[in-house]
Amino acid sequence: MTNIPSIRKATPSDIDKLVQLRLLLQQHCEESNPMIWRMTEEGKTILKQRVQNELSINNSHVLIAEVNGEIIGSAHGEITRRTDYTPKTVGSMSTVYVVREFRKRGVGALLVKQLCELFDVEGVEDVTLRYIIGNKEAEAFWRKLGFKPIITTAKTSLKELENKTSSMNT
Ligand SMILES: CC(C)(COP(=O)(O)OP(=O)(O)OC[C@H]1O[C@@H](n2cnc3c(N)ncnc32)[C@H](O)[C@@H]1OP(=O)(O)O)[C@@H](O)C(=O)NCCC(=O)NCCS
């Protein structure tokens, strides 16, 4: 038996496990920042369909990390081609997740490395991603890999915004 992780492309038989990992990721994100939107029960049901779509779309790559045949992590990459902005070919990475017992052993970096290889073949120039402010693991992980924040997503409730605007001298 070896504890060295191997990376492979996900297949339809992995869907249930992938959904399980996505739910763990969602839980991790919700715990990292109480302000983010919560997934509903319906969202959890739709998730399976979403993962199935990711596996069937041409420009999408879903990778699995395994140790001794056990799935311990996954990552999703998607390629966008466009003519109205430059760079014209960009890759996005999302839903990178490694189960707690296998973290800090290079598995996340290995998943990203393999996505990079797939992106390279397709002529990707820039790589983009989103992570939750307060998700300490993600902040450190992506910073280590050279990512720098360029856009901030902010939110408030409509009620709070109305209170603020009505108290302004306009
Ligand atoms: C983020 C995550 C995928 C990292 O996976 P991992 O396998 O633990 O990461 P690696 O071991 O490949 O770490 C690579 C580098 O990232 C940094 N890093 C990773 N986790 C870190 C942590 N918890 N604290 C500080 N630095 C960390 C380190 O610099 C590390 O390099 P080093 O070990 O040589 O110092 C994992 O922590 C995880 O699944 N977290 C929960 C889900 C999540 O937040 N996913 C990201 C969604 S955007």
What does this protein structure show overall?
By secondary structure, the protein is of the alpha+beta class. Helices cover 39% and strands 22% of the residues. The protein contains 5 helices and 5 strands. It has helices at residues 15-32, 41-56, 107-121, 136-144, 158-166, and strands at 6-9, 60-67, 70-81, 89-98, 126-128. Strand 2 and strand 3 (70-81) form a beta hairpin. The protein is globular. It starts with 5 loop residues before the first strand and ends with a helix. Bound molecules: coenzyme A (COA).
Defining traits:
single chain, 170 residues, alpha+beta, five-stranded mixed beta sheet, 5 helices, globular, binds coenzyme A
Number of extended strands: 5
Distance between termini? 70 Å
Mean pLDDT, all residues: 96
Strand order of the largest sheet: 1-2-3-4-5
Strand content: 15-25%
Report the order of strands and helices.
EHHEEEHEHH
**Main beta sheet, described?**
5 strands, mixed
Helix content: 25-40%
Which word captures the global form?
Answer: globular
Gyration radius (Cα, Å) is 18 Å
Number of helices, counting only DSSP H or I runs of 4 residues or more: 5
Distinct small molecules: coenzyme A
The stretches of 5 or more residues where confidence is low (pLDDT under 50) are: none
Structural class: alpha+beta
